């Protein structure tokens, strides 16, 4: 990160297939170089936000393993929590609609 200059204040990144490398049976992991780069940005005051379709707790654990702590966008954009895990936004399906979708999928073996 020696060449970083500018007014960057926020970096938001997807995880799977972007920040994480799929290592087959070992699972998905960030490279040491990426971890160092993200920690370097955070140490310069850049907010590093991890985003994924994964559940919140999974993303937070990945952030801790990477050595960064920032806001998390989880559940395919359905939830946003700040670095202290305070809920900022949550969007869920209406329970009746969710039941209808589940019945539709089950009827088609999806």
Supply the key terms:
alpha/beta, two-stranded antiparallel sheet, globular, 22% strand, 5-stranded mixed sheet, 33% helix, 110 residues
Question: How would you explain this protein's 3D organization?
Answer:
The chain is of the alpha/beta class and 110 residues long. It is built from three helices and seven strands, in the order E-E-E-H-E-H-E-E-E-H. It has helices at 32-43, 56-66, 95-107, and strands at 10-14, 21-22, 28-29, 47-51, 72-74, 79-81, 87-90. A five-stranded mixed β-sheet has the order 1-4-5-6-7. It is globular, with a radius of gyration of 17 Å. The relative contact order is 0.13. The model has no long low-confidence stretch (mean pLDDT 91).
List the SSEs and their pairings:
Blueprint: E1 10-14, E2 21-22, E3 28-29, H1 32-43, E4 47-51, H2 56-66, E5 72-74, E6 79-81, E7 87-90, H3 95-107
Parallel strand pairs: 1-4, 4-5
Antiparallel strand pairs: 2-3, 5-6, 6-7
- How many beta-strand segments? 7
Q: Output the radius of gyration.
A: 17 Å
Instruction: List the uncertain runs.
Output: none
Measured as a percent range, the helix fraction is 25-40%
Largest sheet, spatial ordering of strands: 1-4-5-6-7
Chain-averaged pLDDT = 91
Structural class: alpha/beta
Taking the alpha carbons of the first and last residues, their distance comes to 45 Å
Oligomer: single chain
What percent of residues are in strands? 15-25%
């Amino acid at each position: 990160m020696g060449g970083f200059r500018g007014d960057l204040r926020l970096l938001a990144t997807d995880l799977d297939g972007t920040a994480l490398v799929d290592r087959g049976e070992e699972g998905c992991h960030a490279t040491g170089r990426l971890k160092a780069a993200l920690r370097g940005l955070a140490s310069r005051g850049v907010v590093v936000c991890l985003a994924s379709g994964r559940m919140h707790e999974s993303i937070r654990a990945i952030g801790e393993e990477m050595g960064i702590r920032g806001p998390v966008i989880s559940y395919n954009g359905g939830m946003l929590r700040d670095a202290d895990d305070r809920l900022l936004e949550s969007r869920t399906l209406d329970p009746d609609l969710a039941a209808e979708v589940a019945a539709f999928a089950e009827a088609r073996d999806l």
